[in-house]
Amino acid sequence: MSTPEALNRITSLKNRYLTLRWIELFLLAGAAVFFVWAFLFLLNVSLLMKISASVAAVVLVITIGTVRYRLFQWSNKEFIQHLNSNYPQLEESADLLLSDADLLTGLQKLQMQKTVQRFDSIYPEIKLPNVLPQSLGIFVLCAIAYFGLISFTSPPIEATEEAPINIAPVIDNPAKESARISFLSISVAPPSYTQIKTFTSSTPDLKVPEGSEVRWTVKFSSPVTHPKIFLSGKDSIDLRLVNDQYSTTLNLNESGFYEIQWTDHLKVVRSDYYKIEIIKDLAPKVVVDNLNQFTRLSLADQRKLTLQSTLTDDYGLTKASVIATISKGSGESVKFREERLEFEKPASISGRKINAELKLDLNKLGMEPGDELYFYVETLDNKVPSPNHSRTETFFIALQDTTQQVAVEDEGLGVDLMPEYFRSQRQIIIDTEKLLKERKKRTVQEFKSTSNELGYDQKVLRLRYGQFLGEEFEGQIGKVEVPEEDDDHESTIEKFSHVHDKENEHNLVADKKPVTTEPSHDGEQKDPNEKENPLEAFAHNHDDGEQATFFVQSVRAKLKAALAVMWDAELYLRLFEPEKSLPYQYTALKLLKEISNDSRIYVHRTGFDPPPLKEEKRLSADLTEIYNSTVTNKLEQKDLFPEIKKALQQIEFLLEQPNPILSSDKKDQFRKAGQELATVALEEPGQFLDGLSLLKKVTDDAISQGELSIALIAIQNIFWKVLPQQPIVPKKNELILHPLDVQFLNSLKQLQHD
Amino acid sequence: MIDTGLSIQPIFSLSIIAIVVIVLLAFMIWKEWQRKIKYRYARIVAVILIIISILGLLLQPVVERERESHGVVLLTPHYKAYVADSLLKASPKLTLLRTADATPYRDATVLDNFYDLYQGINLHFVLGDGLQEYVVHEIKAPFQFYKGELPTGIVTWLHPSDFKPNQVQKIQGTLRSNGASQIKLTGPGGVEDSVSFTQQGSHDFALSLTPKPSGLFVYSVVIEDDGKSVTQKFPVEVMEGKKLNILFIQNYPTSEMRYLKNFLSENGHALAVRSKISKDKFRYEYANRQSLRIDRLSPQILNEFDLFFIDQESLEALSKNEKSVLEESVRHGLGLLTIYHSKDKVKNSAFLSLSMRDIAGDTVNVNLGSSTLTFSVLPLAVIDVVEPIALTKDRVLSGFVNKGAGRIAFQFLQETYRLALEGKKMEYASLWSPLVERTSRTQNPKFKIEIEQPFPRFVDEPLNVNVIAAIARPQLMNDGILIPLREDVVIDDFWHGTIWADESGWHQFTLKQDSTKRNYYVSSPNEWQSLHISQLHKFNESVSQKNSNSNKSLSIIKEQHPISLFVFFIIFLLSAGFLWLVPKL
User: Fold this and answer.
1) Is A442 at the interface with chain B, CB within 8 A?
2) Does one domain contain both A600 and A664?
């Protein structure tokens, strides 16, 4: 073996050594990576963290290795030294192999020859120092440890108490793995009054008490931008970054649904829809347990009652009281007094269910026979800001008034309390006519007497109407015609007798001493000077019947005319000439009718102003100006959920195919149907939200081909449920008759006719 | 067996084959003659052999043999072996044939194709499921049919011809089961109806379904029998109906008419209403349609409408001429519905000439789906035969009688508008819709496409389609492909065509000249077999000749045996090989 050959061998040995060392180092580095992963797995950190930690471990191991073995400084010289020190056979002369032969002395050359031979002999035995088996052992151990850990350990659990929730993100572009939600925690803080502790929702679907404060905390598997929460029917809410996790807090008062959206490398990623169900704080319930709604107490009954009431609420009650109203007296003199009574037992109202009691002492309340007590129980719950309120129906307790009862019992025995004040004009006419008819049967005395009485009736009537006009008896228009005998009676017998033939029998009209003036046949005599009074135009003389303003002018005029006619009617009756009196009576009746009609119209005018009637047109059956009317309208109701119906048909088509493929226009149709579904889902998230998220998955291609038909069937099912049951609609039936059939039928008919 | 000769079944037309072969033969012989090598005659023989083998491949010759027979017994699937035994015992010289899918029986030979049946085979007996309709039509001679065992499953299935939206509709059928069984009808919205039986045997059943939107749907019929579950698809075509043209004439406005009018117009029907306001003064209302002069009833006006509502007073006030016009229009298809308020008017009605008797009780309880409601009713019981729409135990409440092509309807229930007022839309609709629909004029479109075969229809089986079209040349398309039609020899405007559906699912016939459409569903071959077999039984029984063929005469069966094409190929190969080898010798 020559020197260059030996040199070559040395070089190859050196390279082998380096290779061994490097392999060793890489094994150790791999072992370190496994170790780091296993360790970090236990700590449940992000992927980025894992990768950086493992890179660090690799760098560390390799650096230490290279420094320790001085791998980069190794040259042939170093190796020669290694040979010299480990193999004494070379006689410390291995370095000669590297020297230039020409520069060596003879002895050196000799020694070199010898060394080369020695080297040749020991070459197969040269052992390169290494720890390769050990390294391999460490590597294998670490690998086993890592795989053992991940296969036997349950999914990582966050060190905090919050349970992680896995949310499958719906990915717009499934080709590349997007950032996922690696951790989601939803803590729900119900309003303090509910006394429900803050809890962590185990699912992203929320069912929370009304007014709860909900906090979402989200961590993503890799950095994302613009994470938001979309709430149904509302705008989006940005999630804020705090300590590498995103979170936001919201007060929830309405049912609906939400989704989480984030942007990962300009790609918008959305989560599934999750529902929000609100548990409403119900109004408290109040029941009065022991009293009937209407209680009537007699004089002998105990005047002390115990009111027992059961009050319940879902979270708690704060206040309850009895609102009592006592009514005293009757008719116009009724008086009310309202009192708020607090329950005696329990002393203070709190808790979810309360059996409250209150003793009602009617005497203490100041109730007397005939009085009534109305009360109801009112309660408030602890809801903030505004508590729920509820009350019972009103209960009645009446104390019977025995004195009144007697009066009621005697009702049938008493006199007719409603006197016939006076005869109406019509009655006078009827009586007059009757008198005229029976003239021959009656005696003259009788006839005259009756006629006179009718005259008196006529007078009373006149006076009555005169009062409406503001005339105080016969103050201005007529003069008093009090028969002499009446005056006599008045003075002596009046108080002891029951005289009907008298103008103010029942003292209905304030008694006034009639002004006695000189009797006059002409009732209309007036002082001619009076009209000339210059002050009259400016004064407002209420006492004067002429000026009294009970009625509008036309009515006044008519009434005055009626009164004047009545005078005449009375005159002829008093003259025992009823036949002459009758025309006046008729005129008076007619006028009175008109007056009553007038005043009716007057009442109407306050509300409705009727168009003036053309008397000449009324009931003339003239229809010349009335035309036929024509109305044309389009009333057809709009089709309900047209897009869902189309989508249903589309699903049927897709399901018929062995491998359904969703084209873009089909997806468009599904999206449109989804919008219709969303409107329904808003009202009933529990029932239709699943369908909505499934529909979204289908339109976003987030569903595998194999699962597509199952998803379609589910969507079809939900669409069908959305469609309401509608009334049966008649339609045109089709009957296909060949022209020959028609001919046949016609001939048959012809035969029948013949 | 005697060989009687050779027949051919050429692939191309004979003339083309002749020309090609002669030209080829001439060319090849000339070529061989030109070659200056030995075995000239042998080569020419080889060329001739090549040509003969080519001819053999193209013409496909068949050897015909004749065989004596006392008649043929054809065994089809599910035949009863003891019937075949008995037949053979009675006349041992019967020849046995069986279809490929029937179980083997003694020496029965397999029938290759039904074509043989048409060719002189003296078919006496058919056992088992029977022959398809299209096969039977080709067999000229009558045969006797002994039906086989009916398989388990649904054997009858009666369904409405078209399904209406929002209406409960019934399907009736019969199930043959082995044990405890259940039928479930599942639609797009889940299970619609189901029925179960505890014992084996034949059970009648009724299933109901309520379609919602219009369109084509496929429902599933799941039959669970003795632990086995079979799913069959049932096509449901829900058709939105066409709207009606309705005329109202009333002497004075009533709530009854008003709510009826609103109900109909809200559903999109075209309405023309004439209400009398005063003498010779009217109010005209038109809903969902153009206005039209309806002062006087004329045939033209009445032909515009499908249904005519009139109150008793207006009906009486019609002039004599108008009455006769109305009567004639009813004869031509118009529906007439008079609203009566008193029983005497009904009795004396000239139009509704029915014999009726007075009946006690002027209120009735009517069961309208979910609830029972009380109505006041005219105290009348119809004695004559009428088509009832609503009825109670003792009387018909509403119904109609046919008059010519039209119908005259009556509604004895009074003040039905209460339902509409109370918001009971469904009940109100169920009270009036059937009456309105049944009474109205039936539409008689100019075109109609009918399919002869009932449900189920299968892939690769002929579907005969008939078209009624009053035009010179109707063009029928099946899924967009033009179908040849031939006009009926006897009946005018009646066209026939046949198609073979190539895949299961929905298909559509359309007419090029019109918007008429006909959807049909083709079932997969493994579904509805029991129903299909029971239909086959019925058909075969209908064509079976009970006492025919008493003359057990000798007949000769012609059998055709094709010569194997392989022989020709070998000849071709050897001859061509020889020609190739010659120059090298």
Assistant:
1) no
2) no
Chain B residue at shortest CA distance from A737: B444
At the top level of CATH, the class of B447-522 is mainly beta
Cα–Cα–Cα angle for A468, A473, A479, rounded to 5 degrees: 130
Q: Is residue A47 part of a domain?
A: yes
pLDDT tens across A216-274, in order? 888 888 888 888 888 876 778 888 888 788 888 888 888 778 888 888 877 777 787 88
* A138-172 pLDDT per residue, tens: 889 888 888 877 776 544 433 333 344 444 444 44
Weakest-pLDDT range from A180-184, A488-492, B237-241, B332-336: A488-492
* Residue A319 structural domain: 294-409
Residue in chain B lying closest to A733 (CA):
B442
In a domain, A417, yes or no: no
Give this prediction's pTM. 0.54
Exposed, middle or buried, A279 (CB in 10 Å: 0-12/13-18/19+)? middle
ipTM: 0.74
Q: Per the CB < 8 Å rule, is B212 touching A725? A: yes
Q: Are domains B153-240 and B447-522 of this chain identical in fold?
A: yes
Residue pLDDT, tens place only, A46-55: 777 888 888 8
| B21-66 pLDDT per residue, tens | 999 999 999 988 888 888 888 888 999 999 999 998 888 888 877 7
Q: Are the beta carbons of B281 and A735 separated by less than 8 Å?
A: no
Q: What is the predicted pLDDT for the residue at B221?
A: 92
CB of A601 closer than 8 Å to CB of A448? no
Minimum distance, in Å, between the CA of residue B518 and any CA atom of chain A: 13
Give the residue from A256, A279, A302 where a domain finishes: A279
- Both A438 and A365 in one domain: the answer is no
Interface check for A619 against chain B (CB to CB < 8 A): the answer is no
B260 touches chain A (CB under 8 A): no
Shared-domain flag, residues A571 and A463: yes
> Which backbone phi and psi does B74 adopt, to 5 degrees?
-105, 125
Let me know whether A51 and A122 are in one domain. Answer: yes
Q: Kindly state the DSSP code that residue A369 receives in the 8-state scheme.
A: T
Contact B283, B277 (CB under 8 A): yes
Q: CB distance from A733 to chain B under 8 Å?
A: yes
pLDDT digits (tens, 9 = 90+) for B464-513: 999 988 787 888 999 889 999 998 888 888 899 999 988 888 999 998 88
Instruction: Give the domain ranges of chain B.
Output: 2-64+563-584, 71-149+533-553, 153-240, 245-439, 447-522
Q: CA of A744, closest CA in chain B: separation in Å?
A: 12
Q: Which CATH architecture has domain B245-439?
A: 3-Layer(aba) Sandwich (3.40)
Residue A239 belongs to some domain of the structure: yes
What is the C-alpha separation between A455 and A432, in angstroms, rounded? 10
Which of the listed CATH numbers 3.40.50.720, 3.30.70.20, 3.40.50.300, 2.60.40.150 matches domain B153-240?
Answer: 2.60.40.150
Question: Are A736 and B331 a contacting pair at CB < 8 A?
Answer: no
Tokens, residue A441? 């049967």
- Chain A residue numbers touching B516 (CB-CB < 8 A): none
pLDDT tens for A380-416 read 888 877 888 888 888 888 887 766 544 444 444 344 3
Whether A751 has its CB under 8 Å from any CB of chain B: the answer is no
Q: Token digits for B209? A: 């379904």
* Mean pLDDT value of segment A60-89: 79
B228-238/B190-197 β-pairing: unpaired
Q: Is the confidence at residue A214, as pLDDT, over 60?
A: yes
d(CA A498, CA A500): 6
Residue to substitute from A634, A635, A723, interface B, most B β-carbons within 10 A: A635
Nearest to A229 by CA among A217, A221, A220: A217
On chain B, the residues whose CB falls within 8 A of the CB of A622 are none
Query: How many domains, in total, are found in chain A?
Result: 5
**What percent of the residues of chain B are helix, what percent strand, and what percent coil, each to the nearest 5?**
25, 40, 35
Q: What is the mean pLDDT of chain A?
A: 76
For residues A239 and A299, state if they share a domain: no
**Are B444 and A736 an interchain contact pair (Cβ–Cβ within 8 Å)?**
yes
